[in-house]
Amino acid sequence: MLIAIPVIENKGEDSIISEHFGHAPYFAFIKVNENKIEEIKIEKNPYEEHGPGMIPEYIHKNGAKVLIVRGIGARAISFFEQYGIKVIRGASGSIKEIVTSFISGHIKDMEYKVKEKFHEH
């Protein structure tokens, strides 16, 4: 399974999740196999200044089936749902902490209000 997480830095499994998925400087793509992290690939966000639907298409083309975020808007969620990508909101911490929590079944989708400044686009 491939999981996508927007992150603020490129520090491997220690990279911290971004406050808002669309304005993250990087996206981490984490390959999980047999309940273990097999590979972490971190890419610069090519759509940091994005239009609606561009990031969901990018995540889909990379093969992710799950997107774990801190904050995300309802419209963006609908784009991800069209691609069959499950969105889990309200996460915090590093890639390692988040994915470990996901694998163990402890991470739950929780609404998280992003700061309004992110919705000026």
UniProtKB/TrEMBL annotation:
Family matches, as SUPFAM superfamilies: Nitrogenase accessory factor-like
Protein name from the UniProt record: Dinitrogenase iron-molybdenum cofactor biosynthesis protein
Ranges of residues in domain Dinitrogenase iron-molybdenum cofactor biosynthesis: 14-103
InterPro entries per record: Di-Nase_FeMo-co_biosynth, DiNase_FeMo-co_biosyn_sf, MTH1175_dom
Database matches in Pfam families: Nitro_FeMo-Co
